Structures are given as C-alpha cells and as structure tokens.
Amino acid sequence: MSSRYRVEYHLKSHRKDEFIDWIKGLLATPFVLHAVSHDEEDTEDLTTTQRVKSQYAEILKDVEQLILNKIEFDSRNQSNDEEYLNESSLGRSRLNLLVPSIGTFFTPLPLEKAFLWEDSVKAISARRMIAPSFNDVRRLLNTAQIFHFQKQKKLGPTGKPLKMVTFDGDVTLYEDGGSLVGENPVIPYIIKLLACDICVGIVTAAGYDEAGTYEKRLHGLVESVYESKVLTTEQKHRLTIMGGESNYLFRYYETSSELCQDTQLSSTDEDQENMVSEGEGRREGKVFGFKPVDRSEWVLKQMIEWDEADIKATLDFAEKTLNTLKRRLMLPKEAPIMRKKWAVGIVPGKKTDPSTGREYNVRLSREQLEEIVLTLQSTLENFPPARRIQFSCFDGGNDVWCDIGGKNLGIRALQRYYCPGSAIDPAQTLHVGDQFAPMGSANDFKARLAGCTMWIASPEETVDVLNRLTRD
To answer: Pick from 122, 154, 186: which residue ends a domain?
Structure first.
C-alpha cells in the first residue's frame, strides 16, 4: 500500500506539471538500474557515477531533440504544410503524443549541456538514494533557457537576443506579502537588464488603478532606478508595471519639478502632501515614480472586443460562487469578499484576540484555498459569459481571486507597447515566476503562451538565475 503522502500527492493533479514529471520518470530508469555501486572502492563508485551521468545526459539529449522536432512541427503547422502534416503521426509531433498537455516551445533548450552544468554543481549523478527530483528537472529547464539566451547574445546580429524580461511579484522578487526594499539583491540585476536595453515589466495580479500602491511595494526599485548613474532616461522608461494580470499599465518616469509648477500652483499644500504619501518620489528638484499609461495605447484588440455585459456577468457569478463557498466551508466572517472593477476575491481580514485585545491576521488553510480556487475555476468554465472572455482564477497564498484577463495577455500587451510597429517576439521574451504548476490555480501558467519562462521557488533563486543570465 502507498504511504499517505504518496496517495495525497497523486490525488493533487492540479499541483503537477506533466512535462517535468515525464522527464523525471525517464531519469528514474537509469537511477534504479545503474546508480548502485557493487563495491566500496572509490574507483568503482566513480565508475558508477560516470555511467549514470552518461545515461542521464543521453536521455536529456533525446528530449532536446524531441523539443526541436516539436518546434519544427509547430512552425510547419502554422504555415499549413499539408505534406509534412500528412507524414507525421496523426498530425501531431512526437512530443505531443508522449506528453499530451505539452505547450509551445519558442526556443530550443540545450538540456544535455544544462544537465552537465547542474551535475557539476549539485552532483546529481553521484546520488545513490535519491533519484532526480521534480526540483532538479525544474532547475535544469531554467539553466537550459539561460544557456539558450547566452548563445543568442554571442551570435550578435544573426541571433535573437533577449529583449524583454517580466517578473511576478510575491515569492519572485520579494517574500509573500513583502515589498522591494533598497537592500534587495535582485535590484542590481534589474538595473543591469535595463542597462543592456532590455525592457523590464512586473506583471502582477495585484490590481490597483493608481500608481501609489505599486510605488510603495516597489519603493526600493523606484529609488534605485532614479539614483542610477548608468541608466539613460530612455532606459529608465523601459521599466513598467502591468497590474491586475492585464488590466492596468504604469510606466516609470522622471520630470523636473519646474515642469509641473503650473499644475502645482493650483494645488493646496495638503494635496501635494497626499501625492507624496501615495508613493510619488520627490528629490533634488525632480519628481519620479510610475504614471498610468492610457488604456488605448496598449490594450489588445481581443480585449477591446469583449462585451462589458459578459465581464460584469462573470464577476457577478464569481462573487456569488465565493459567497456560496464561504458558507459551505464555514469560513470566518473576518475573511471578506472584495469586488473591484476587473476582479473579485476573498481576502484575509483581521480578528481581535479577546484575551490580549490585539489584532491578528485571519489565515485560510491550504485545503480551503485549493477547494475555493478549483471550484471557482471549474464553475466559471461552464458559465457561458465567462467562456466568451478570458479570466484567471488563482490563490495567492492566503487569498483567492478571479481576474478578468490573464498574464499571457499582459505580456503580449507589453510586447506590443514596447515595439508598436513590430511586437517583441515570444522567443525574445522571458517571464520569471513561481506559480506555474496548475492551470486552474497558478496565474503564471498562462505566461507560457506568450514567451519563454523560468519557474523559480524563492526570491533567492530569482537572484541566482539573473546572476547567470546577465553574466558576461
């Protein structure tokens, strides 16, 4: 009989990634058959390690070729090459047959080279009791993506170098519920990306229609960009925030206070103090921070075509579903349901401890969050107005939201906003985030539709991948 852990793990299909699990299964065979030393001698152990390393590398080279085959197949499919499609098995790539849920690959992935690098650092092939894990494969894919972009940079004019990097916020740039303070080690790498003429966007689920809240969460980054001596004004303006998945766009700006003098003369001292308290920076005669970009300048055509009635009906239905779940799961009354223009969600509130009189945050359990988000997702998928638009359901660690739109749309909007004439290619786009596992409850998942991705597990891991990505 399986252990309780294994039973529960296999029931949680929404937490899995079929492609990573498939690679993990391939690597399990040489581990089981060959990762055992028959002798205590060091020479025998070294021989075993080399044999296992060779087999791991060979398998990953084969997967690398399957990815190349899929890229070629998808390219021909888009060009309607009927002869090629007829020759292919059932009109599908080999990788699609092996992993039915596989998505799109925008670039080749040098998996063999990535494994040899990872193995040199973490000695994966030297392990005898622990087979290559989910996290091993996840990090391997990240390293392969880094190697690809490093190669493109070296190719010069003939390559397709990285042009845009986007980030999730919580657990990617800073701890869950935290903010980007000036001492955060990720900031110098964001500055370095901007200095290399790479556009940087923070694509977050946090949805606010004013810049002040974002400036408070990212105040360390805003001040570092302002103080930077290596960035030009044009490079600074390449820093943006896409909020609410794909609903609000803000761009970094700087301006001399004198330019705003006419408008400030009509403002009271109290009005100006409120502007500063909302997050806007003022220093050395300059005003700096984020300013909203008019929706008409960046919104995608498919989003414009959505019917307002469908959007309202979707949010109304999602709100009704959340109220039903709140009663069914007997959630605390201190966890209110919040409605915004483009989103609705259930959020943690505060409760007072009767013995001490102190307030503390109400927390929802992992099981409650997963029940809410999966029920909300499946319910909306069968709701006709919701099927005519796009929505995203996800849990943020202690809350659950339904947003209109998705990160794929937010990233595509940025690709067009930065290059209006010819949008940035998905093969030259990279999104870094922590929520890629389940389609129903992780909002970074849809980013895979718009560009290359890196699945990280902590802000420290983000720093590590950026260090390698920006290394000369």
So the answer is: 154
Both 82 and 228 in one domain: the answer is no
Domain that holds residue 312: 162-249+296-472
Last residue of a domain, one of 124, 154, 184: 154
pLDDT at 427 over 80: yes
- Both 144 and 208 in a single domain? no
How many domains is the chain built from? 2
Q: CA 342 to CA 299: how far, in whole Å? A: 14
**Residues 361-403 pLDDT 10s:** 888 898 999 899 999 999 999 999 999 999 999 888 889 999 9
* Inside any domain, residue 441: yes
pTM of this prediction?
0.87
Same domain, residue pair 83 and 227: no
Same domain for 78 and 183? no
Same domain, residue pair 99 and 240: no
Question: What pLDDT, on a 0 to 100 scale, did the predictor assign at position 255?
Answer: 84
Which 3-state string (H, E, C) describes the chain? CCCHHHHHHHHCHHHCCHHHHHHHHHHHHHHHHHCCCCCCCHHHHHHHHHHHHHHHHHHHHHHHHHHHHHHHHHHHHHCCCHHHHHHCHHHCCHHHHHCCCCCCCCCCCCHHHHHHHHHHHHCHHHCCCCCCCHHHHHHHHHHHHHHHHHHHHHCHHHCCCCCEEEECCECCCECCCCCCCCCCCCHHHHHHHHHCCCEEEEECCCCCCCHHHHHHHCHHHHHHHHHCCCCCHHHHCCEEEEECCCCEEEEEEEEEHHHHHHHHHCCCHHHHHHHHHCCCEEECCEEEEEEECCHHHCCCHHHHCCCHHHHHHHHHHHHHHHHHHHHHCCCCCCCCEEECCCEEEECCCEEECCCCCCEEECCCCHHHHHHHHHHHHHHHHCCHHHHCCCEEEEECCCCEEEEECCHHHHHHHHHHHHCCCCCCCHHHEEEEECCCCCCCCCCCHHHHHCCEEEECCCHHHHHHHHHHHCCC
Mean pLDDT score, 161-182: 91
Q: Are 167 and 149 in a shared domain?
A: no
Give the model confidence (pLDDT) of 254-278 as tens digits: 986 544 444 443 334 434 434 433 4
Residue that is written with structure tokens 């694509």 in the block: 203
Is residue 356 domain-shared with residue 225, that is, in the same domain?
yes
- Pair 350, 454 in one domain: yes
Tokens of 175: 């701890």
Would strands 452-455 and 429-433 be described as parallel, antiparallel, or unpaired?
parallel
Residues designated catalytic? 168, 170
Asked whether residue 265 is assigned to any structural domain, the reply reads no
pLDDT at 280 over 70: no
Q: Give domain status of residue 392, yes or no.
A: yes
